[in-house]
Write a structure and sequence with these properties.
Radius of gyration: 22 Å
Distance between the termini: 22 Å
Mean pLDDT: 85
Strand content: under 5%
């Protein structure tokens, strides 16, 4: 009985999603006595848990090998991207040290493919919704215990609520902000596209997640979430065929965007408690071309720029900084993609991301399932938020999962003949 329970897809799906959402990173460090506020997810136990998940992933793929292989064989852009990324890695300064991280990255993309063939969109959204409720409860209950123990913002900046930043179970305010921003969108989609009986609960939980997001003090996810909500609602009006309302709404949204472009940026940053240097990101982005043009075609390889070698390029970046600090990325997924994979691999990644967006839009207009807005809303959030973080290229984070989930699917959008074969396979197992 226990063996059957453990082998169920639901258990594996929940476990993997909990890990990529980053909501229990602190637990591993707490067990080993590591400060989760500084080294979230770096414990030996944490790595062991990931190894177990990867083994289980391989077993699940082996069980679904026919459908998985069919999906992968028709993902030509993905295969080309992985091939170029592997070449970049092989030619990098530290291929041995980066190969493990790259293998983990590829395995996470394969998890996205497995989700496409094994988990319909509605089920995935409901799973994330349940995880969000549990995490929110634990997050709030832990506030009296750890709320005053850790300083989640080294600059001591107040949040938009006027409070000190609180990241709770995540250990870092950006992790907390991204998680609760995603949960706000999931509740928003359930509120708009779900049955009326769940409207009230979805609205209530959406408000709770929004407060948690605001309390995290993470400006990037907050802005990304608000922008995504605005665009998603506009797309909803278009899909529902309400042309008059859609025209007025998009005209108003365009006017607002124009005002934002005209208003001095310092005033806009001040609204979310930030300054024009974007907490050092402006420096990173200004020096990025200097490093990119040293390896323009194939890049530095996956994780090849920020490594622990004595001659690591990151050491030069540290020496150029106006303050003495170590960087782990260029705080921009797109800059990191071109830096790691070069022009060739980076261009393939951009095409892959564009295909993912196209798939999510097509899925929305087809209105398949209950939560047909979910893929577009979640992917758009990741796309916008990635402009000031490196989440898309993290091998153990939900940004990577969502990008490749939408690229592969979100429900196995193959060509006509392969799609019929896929449908027959799914029907035969029902």
């Amino acid at each position: 009985m226990i063996g059957r329970w453990w082998s169920r897809t639901d258990v594996f799906l929940h476990a993997y999603l909990v890990m990529v959402l980053g909501c229990i990173y602190f637990l591993f460090n707490f067990v080993e006595g590591i400060s989760f506020a500084e080294r979230a997810g770096e414990s030996t136990l944490f790595r062991g848990a990931w190894l177990l998940l990867y083994i289980l992933l391989m077993l699940h793929i082996a069980v679904d090998r026919t459908r998985f292989g069919l999906l992968l064989l028709h993902s030509h852009l993905y295969l080309a991207f992985v091939a170029f990324a592997a070449v970049s890695l092989a030619l990098s300064a530290d291929p041995a040290g980066s190969s493990i991280k790259f293998a983990m990255y590829v395995l996470t993309t394969m998890f996205s493919a497995w989700v496409v063939i094994s988990c319909p969109v509605d089920r995935l959204v409901d799973t994330l919704f349940r995880i969000g409720i549990v995490v929110l409860i634990v997050h709030v209950l832990l506030f009296p215990v750890i709320g005053s123990e850790w300083n989640y913002d080294a600059l001591n900046r107040p949040t938009v609520l006027g409070t000190q930043a609180y990241a709770g179970v995540f250990g870092h305010k950006n992790l907390a902000g991204a998680f609760f921003g995603l949960m706000v969108l999931i509740c928003f989609v359930r509120m708009l596209a779900g049955p009326r009986r769940q409207f009230g609960w979805s609205l209530l939980l959406m408000g709770c997640h929004f407060v948690a997001l605001a309390a995290a003090g993470s400006a990037g996810p907050l802005i990304s979430m608000l922008t995504t909500v605005a665009v998603t609602f506009g797309l909803l009006l278009v899909v529902l065929g309400r042309r008059g309302a859609a025209s007025i709404y998009w005209l108003g949204l365009a006017s607002f965007a124009l005002v934002v472009l005209v208003v001095p940026s310092d005033y806009l940053y001040a609204l979310v408690g930030r300054s024009g240097n974007l907490t050092g990101r402006s420096f990173l982005w200004s020096v990025w071309p200097h490093f990119f043009w040293q390896h323009p075609w194939l890049g530095y390889g996956f994780s090849g720029f920020f490594n622990e070698l004595p001659n690591s390029p990151a050491n030069e970046l540290t020496s150029m900084a106006p303050w003495n600090t170590e960087f782990g990325s260029f705080e921009n997924s797109y800059l990191d993609a071109f830096l790691q994979f070069g022009l060739l691999g980076g261009a393939l990644y951009v095409l892959l991301l564009a295909r993912a967006l196209w798939n999510s839009i097509v899925f929305t207009f087809e209105r398949r399932g209950m939560y047909w807005l979910a893929p577009f809303a979640m992917l758009l959030f990741v796309v916008i938020a990635s402009a000031n973080d490196s989440s898309q290229l993290l091998h153990n984070y939900f940004g990577c999962v969502l990008v490749f989930w939408c690229y592969f699917g979100p429900e196995a959008r193959l060509q006509a003949a392969p799609r019929r074969a896929f449908t027959r396979l799914r029907a035969s197992e029902a």
